[in-house]
């Protein structure tokens, strides 16, 4: 029971940290600078080994079926963390952030589901590459550079990150059946994108390393 609670708590912390990155993005008008600071969220998630769904789902190929429970609890925790921070921000003087978040949310909800899925797919690819490189890379510069470049890439490209969007929806206080339906499509897109890259990494890159050894 304790390990399941740990999964949930680590998921909540990951949601909180991604939300802090999201707050920075809402606060900075320059998108390049904003996306760079947003990277703080993923960087700290990796440093403290918190459970961010998009950083963990690609490893489903390496784990037993029970790993699905960890993923589900992580995702629920991510939502709780982002929901909490998003609603706390609504109680502060940062009223301008609410309007900015609403503009971001409107763009997403006025998009079609196929577009959302494709954009989420690409984001999932980037997330796996960034997190896996952080775990496996021995070179310090490469280790951290991939985190920053990965986050900046998905934000500046306009790709869909399900957990970041949970935060934006929470700040904007926009929740409906449509919102959860769109979030589900984002989760599926992020998952498939991550798994696609993980499959290549596991079956080609890692196998080639073993054959050379």
List the helices and strands and how they pair.
Layout lengths: L1 H26 L3 H17 L5 H4 L10 H23 L5 H15 L3 H24 L3 H18 L4 H11 L4 H36 L1
Helix pairs in contact: 1-2, 1-4, 1-8, 2-7, 4-8, 5-8, 6-7, 6-9, 8-9
Describe this protein's structure.
There is one protein chain. With 213 residues, the protein is mostly helical. It has a single domain (2-212), classed as Glycerol uptake facilitator protein, CATH 1.20.1080.10. It is 82% helix and 0% strand. It is built from nine helices and no strands. α1 (2-27) crosses α4 (67-89) and α6 (113-136) packs antiparallel against α7 (140-157). The longest helix has 36 residues, at 177-212. The radius of gyration is 17 Å and the shape is globular. The mean pLDDT is 94.
Beta strand %: under 5%
Number of domains: 1
Structure classification: mainly alpha
Unreliable stretches: none
Major sheet characteristics: none
- Strand elements, count: 0
Mean pLDDT: 94
Query: Which homologous superfamily in CATH is the superfamily?
Result: Glycerol uptake facilitator protein
Rg, rounded, reads 17 Å
Distance from first to last alpha carbon: 41 Å
Count of runs of 4 or more consecutive helical residues: 9
Which CATH class is shown? Mainly Alpha
């Amino acid at each position: 029971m304790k390990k399941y609670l740990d999964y949930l708590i680590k998921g909540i912390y990951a949601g909180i940290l991604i939300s802090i990155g999201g707050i920075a993005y809402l606060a900075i008008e320059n998108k390049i600078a904003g996306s760079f600071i947003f990277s703080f969220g993923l960087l700290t998630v990796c440093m403290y080994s918190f459970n961010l769904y998009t950083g963990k789902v690609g490893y489903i190929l390496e784990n037993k079926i029970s790993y699905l429970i960890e993923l589900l609890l992580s995702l629920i925790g991510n939502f709780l963390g982002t929901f909490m921070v998003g609603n706390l921000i609504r109680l502060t003087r940062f009223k301008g952030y609410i309007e900015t978040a609403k503009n971001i949310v409107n763009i997403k909800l006025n998009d079609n589901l196929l577009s959302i899925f494709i954009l989420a797919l690409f984001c999932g690819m980037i997330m796996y590459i960034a997190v896996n490189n952080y775990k496996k890379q021995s070179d310090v510069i490469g280790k951290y550079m991939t985190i920053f470049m990965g986050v900046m890439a998905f934000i500046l490209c306009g790709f869909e990150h399900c957990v970041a969007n949970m935060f934006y929806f929470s700040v904007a206080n926009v929740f409906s059946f449509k919102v959860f339906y769109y979030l589900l499509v984002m989760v599926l897109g992020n998952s498939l994108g991550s798994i696609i890259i993980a499959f290549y990494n596991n079956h080609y890159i890692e196998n080639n390393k073993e054959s050379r050894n």
